[in-house]
Amino acid sequence: MKQTSNKPNYLAHLGKDIPAGLVVFFVALPLCLGISLASGAPLLSGVITGIVGGLIVAWLSGSQLSVSGPAAGLTVIVLNGIESLGSFEAFLLAVVLAGILQLGLGFMKAGVIGLYFPSSVIRGMLAAIGLILILKQIPHFLGADEDFFGEMNFFQADGRNTFSEIGYAFSSIQLGALIIGVVSLAILLLWDNPRIKSNKFLKLIPGALLAVIFSIALNAIFINFVPELAVVSSHLVNLPVIEGFEGLTNELRFLNLEAITNPTLYVVAFTIAIVASLETLLSVEAVDKLDPHKRRTNTNRELKAQGVGNMVAGLLGGIPMTAVIVRSSTNLAAGAQSKVSAFVHGIFLALSVFLIADFMNQIPLSALAAVLLVVGYKLTKPALYISQFKLGHEQFIPFIVTVLAILFTDLLVGICVGLAVGVFYILKANYRSPYFYHKEEYKDKEIIRIRLSEHVSFLNKASIILTLDHLPHNSHVIIDGENSEHIDYDVLEAIQEFKRTAHERNITVEVLNVEEVSIMEMH
Predict the structure, then answer these.
(1) Is the dihedral of CA 174, 175, 176, 178 positive or negative?
(2) pLDDT tens-place string over residues 98-109
(3) Which homologous superfamily does the CATH classification assign to the domain defined by 435-522?
(4) What's the CA dihedral at 87, 93, 97, 100 to 10 degrees?
C-alpha cells in the first residue's frame, strides 16, 4: 500500500487541525447522541464510542483525515442486537467480539476488498451522503423535526419518509429555530469567503464555533425578551449532565459475560464486524479520494485500528464504531491536515461529558443543522454531477444509480446496488477487449488474425465465442496466444470447439501458441 515516505509533522498544522477538530466535534456530538437514541442504547454510549474513536483509533489508524465514531448505518443492527440478546450489557460483549474479528480481518489482510469498489460508486456514495445531509437537516433547520439528529434512512420510524418530513416541516416551522438557523448559515457562508480566509487572525476562528456561540446568544435573547421565539428543549442538544466520579459510574454500563454461551451472540458479533468493516473501508477510500495531498490509507491497518476501537468501546459501554464519512468529510471541509483534528474532536467530546454539558445543552440543533447543510453542499456540488456526466455513461450511470439507491434505501443497500451496476459495466468492458482483431485480404481468401491479450479469463469467454460465431465463411483464421500469460480453460475449450466445427463454414483455422485441451476432459 502506498504511504507517504516522510513522517508527518503534526505540530506544523495545529493552526488548521485544532479548529477543524472543533468543527467536527460540533457535528459529532449531536450525531453520537442521536444514533444512541435511535439504536435503543443509553445516550452516553454513543458519546463514549466517539471519544474512543478520537482518542485511540485516530492514532492507531493509518488514515490522516478519517474520523471514527458511531455510525447511522449500524443503528438497525444495534437495535436488533440488543433486542435479540435481551440486554444492552450482553450486546456489549458482541461489540468486543466484533472488534476481535475485525482485528483478525486486519491480520488476514482483508482490507484489500475496499480497492475493488469502482470510483464512480465511491463518488456516488459521497454525493448521496451530501444530498441526504441536506434533505435530513432541512426539518431540523426549520425547528420542526422530532426525529433523532443522526437519522439517515429514507423511511422513518414515525411512518414518514425523507420528502414527506420536509413537507411536514414547512407546515410546522418554529420561527425562533429558523431565525437561528439562517443566522448560523449566513455566518458559515461569510466565513467561507476568500477575504476572511486570507485574514491571518480571522481564519484561525472556526466558522462553526462562531455560529454556535451566536446561536446560543440569540436564543438567550429570545428567552429573555421574546419568549415565543425561544427554541424548545426538544430542539436543543441533550447531553446527560454528569456530576463527579460517582455520577459517571452510575451512567456507565459494562458487558455481561453470561451471554457467552448464547449462539445469537456470535451471529450479532459477526454481523457487526462485517458491516462495520465494509462501511469503514468505503469511508477511508472515499476520504483518500478527497484528500488534497492524495495520501493512501493502509486498509489492513485501518481494520486493526477499528478492531481495537470496538474492543475498547465495548469494554467501556459504547456502541460499535466505524470510520464515518459524515464526520470525515466535515473534517476535510474544515481544512484538517492530519489525524490531530480527529484527536482534538475526541478531547472536546470528553470535555463535553465531564465539564461543559450544561453549556452544550444550550446549543440549538438548527445551528448544527446549518453546519451540516454546508458540508452536504460541498459533497454534492452540481459540478460533481456535470463532471461525472462528461466522463460518459459507463461512469455516470453507476454514479447516479448509487446516489438514488442510497437516497431511497440506506448506505449499505445503496452501495451494493451501485456496485452491481458498476460490475456490469466492468464485465461489459472485459467482454469486448480480450483480443486484437486484424483482417486482411489474401488472394481469394480473407485472412483474419486474432491476437489474444495477456490475461484471458472466463469473463472474456462470451466475447470470444460471439466473435468466432460471426466470422465470415470461407476465411482463414489465425488465433495467436503468443502474448498471453494465462488463458482460462473455459476459453481454451471454446477455441477447441470452434476449431472442431469451423470446417462446416469452410473456415480454415490455425491456432498458434495456444494450449490444446480435450473437450471431453472438460466435462
Answers:
(1) positive
(2) 999 999 999 999
(3) STAS domain (3.30.750.24)
(4) 140
